[in-house]
Every structure is written in C-alpha cells, then in structure tokens.
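Protein in question reproduced for absentees:

***
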Amino acid sequence: MNKIADVFELDKTLIQKIKLKDLKLKVKRPKKGGLKIDKIRKAIDIDLCDLDYYLKLLKTDITA
C-alpha cells in the first residue's frame, strides 16, 4: 500500500494495515491471494513489468 501512496503522493498515515479476518467477509478468502503469472508470461511470450511501473503509468494516464 505504501507504493501506491508514494507514486500518487498520498499521506501514508491514512493507510492502516489490517488482517483479512478483521474484514468479517461473508465468503472465506485464501490467506495468500497473490497472482502467479509464470504460465501466462510463457504463453504470451511478453515481459511483464513490476507494480511500480504500472502504478506510474496509471498516474500518467489519469493526470494527462
């Protein structure tokens, strides 16, 4: 979350880390909900950039 605050120049003190169990969701969610992209990276034969790159790209798009 701090990466988002850094790129968009937001106040990091407004972001609070919470545990998934504290959300009291009606549907159970996995503890590790990350996205593995190894298979798609090989299938489409393209280099995918890191999160920082895409956040900066998004910022450029929405501020243009």
